[in-house]
Amino acid sequence: MNTNTAFQASFDALIQTALPEVDHRPVARPAFTLGAERLGDVVSREALLDLAMGANRKRKSSEKLRRGRKPAEGLALVARDEADQLVGTVRLWNVRLGDGVQALLLGPLAVEPSTKSGGIGSALMRQAITEATRLGHCAILLVGDPGYYERFGFSAAKTGDLAMPGPYERHRFLALELVEGWLDGAKGTLKASGRKVSEVVARAG
Ligand SMILES: CC(C)(COP(=O)(O)OP(=O)(O)OC[C@H]1O[C@@H](n2cnc3c(N)ncnc32)[C@H](O)[C@@H]1OP(=O)(O)O)[C@@H](O)C(=O)NCCC(=O)NCCS
Question: How far is the CA of 116 from the centre of ligand 1 (A)?
């Protein structure tokens, strides 16, 4: 091996070890559309949530604020793929903060596991925030990973004097003000304040 060849071989070896392997195949981004949840979506939405979040999902303290209630008007959103299959879901719920201030609680947010990192979660979050603002809501709260939700403007800065009605991790209790200052001085435990399922059924009957 001459000097040039030896240099090239050791250079190649160095590059192989210094650079992580990169897959240059085009990344398939799932095609999807966003829209309102339909009555017929309930079974697929529940199946998707079981798949994405596991069976323990109903033990969360957020569930106490959702049980027996309807989501806030116009704020049950889904993503569908090209075959019209449900691939993402997010819902928001009316809550009253301890001292009477009204807000929304967001969750659960989930996407079909095979579509993860395809942008569906972000699209649902942005649509939820836009719609909540358009409908005149003033703040959104949620319990979730700051590493994901901070990109949409959520933080724990305004939730220090608020509490969920059950166990939760304080650093994961986040809020986004849609109206600046809405959560200033807000304190107390969240309570469900949305339409009860029974009221909706009674009105429909
Ligand atoms: C969280 C979830 C909804 C995100 O949906 P998605 O369509 O995969 O999200 P997006 O494609 O918009 O964003 C993906 C990015 O978020 C990151 N991300 C996903 N979950 C995250 C988390 N918990 N913490 C920090 N970052 C996270 C991914 O690493 C990815 O980063 P990249 O863009 O740098 O590659 C989805 O992963 C999911 O359904 N998870 C299971 C259910 C769940 O945990 N729901 C949230 C409860 S807190």
Answer: 7
Q: Where are the domains of the chain?
A: 28-204
Domain 28-204 has CATH 3.40.630.30: yes
Contact of 152 with 126, CB cutoff 8 Å = yes
Is the separation of the CB atoms in 91 and 75 below 8 Å? Answer: yes
Tell whether ligand 1 has an atom less than 6 A from the beta carbon of residue 120. yes
pTM of the model: 0.87
Q: What is the pLDDT of residues 9-30, one digit of tens each?
A: 454 444 444 444 555 555 667 8
